Amino acid sequence: MKIAVIGGFAPSLLTFRGPLLRRLVGLGHEVHALAPAHLPDVSPRLEAMGVDYSMYPLARRGMNPLADIGTLLHLKQVLFRIRPDLILSYGFKPVVYGSLAARMAWVGQKKRVYGLVTGLGYAFTRDAGLKRRLLFGLAKGMYRAGLKSCDGVIFQNPDDRAFFEQLGVLPVNGRTTVVPGSGVDLAEFAPAPQPAAPVFLCLARLVRSKGVAQFAEAAARLKERYPEASFRLAGPPEEGGDAVTPAEIADWKARGALEVLDAVDDVRPLIAAASAYVLPSYYREGVPRSILEALAMGRAVVTTDAPGCRETVVPGENGFLVPPKDADALATAMERLIVEPGLARRMGQASRRMAEEKFDVDKVNDAMLAFMGLQ
After folding, report:
1. Does any domain span residue 290?
2. Which alpha helices (H) appear in the chain, and where do they start and end?
3. Residues 275, 182: contact at Cβ < 8 Å?
4. 119-135 pLDDT, tens digit each
5. Rounded to two decimals, what is the model's pTM?
6. In the chain, at which end, N or C, are there fewer CB atoms within 10 A of the end residue's CB?
7. Which residues contact 316 (CB under 8 A, 6 or more apart)?
8. Total domain count for the chain?
9. C-alpha triplet 344, 349, 353: angle, nearest 5°
10. Is residue 238 part of a domain?
């Protein structure tokens, strides 16, 4: 069978979908991966896995009608050339335009088209303001159009599926399922010894909806009382209305409580050097990959009681859930991991068990393949 997997960010084909692509090749399928151009080029690594790679143009952020029409038409041409039997798209624009292009390329009849919703993102946080309401309405309409072309839709948490059912954007006769995120490779992200001193790590793009401002505020408060504790934030800067400004980042550094680090390709050394992982996101996550990696490496987790995030913590067992946008509650939860010796270690052991039982990438891929009729 010919299978096309369409993503919106080329490196994610390796980091998020690599195990799935390898599994499909191992099952004897002819596998094609599509994504926008990226440097460094991912094609050598995909080709080494036995996956054919094609590029297409995509503006990942913003709504430019001309650019998006170009994306749709280019995807149609690529799919018409490949003529896949099954298409799996993931991410907002790939799901919308990949599914529409599949039907336009006559992939639809007796073929199968699936969309994987990996979180709803900034457009669905529903903050006040005319611009945000317009963005919400546009994103809702685009999802309705794209998902109408799908035979099945895969969600990464039950909140997102319930939300889409409430919005009425799911295909009338389409099937749906929920899998626990993208999963994590338990061998690649193996347990690591705990550091002696308390170290809190947050890995996130530097945008407000990831809760990085609340993390910075909690770090400032706790550093005054517990100077032996360390607080580290690592991630790429962003642009746009949700981005943290360079002035804010400079202020965090100047206050001396928070270490702001550059993004890294391999996060394992950062996680290994931390005693706990913190992600105070109110972004509409699928299930945050960074939390899954921290779970697998045996780290206590402090995150928000928000869609996607709440799937990763049993409160009091492997970490704590706090309300979104609440720096006070965040600081209180983190403080417990400072003042109660051994708590982070015990919670970290529970996190690893959760990763093994619920988030093993092989189990997640088994569920997806079964839903798509591929095993």
Report:
1. yes
2. 12-15, 18-26, 43-48, 65-82, 92-104, 130-147, 158-167, 212-225, 246-255, 268-272, 289-296, 327-339, 343-358, 361-371
3. no
4. 887 667 656 567 767 78
5. 0.93
6. C
7. none
8. 2
9. 140
10. yes
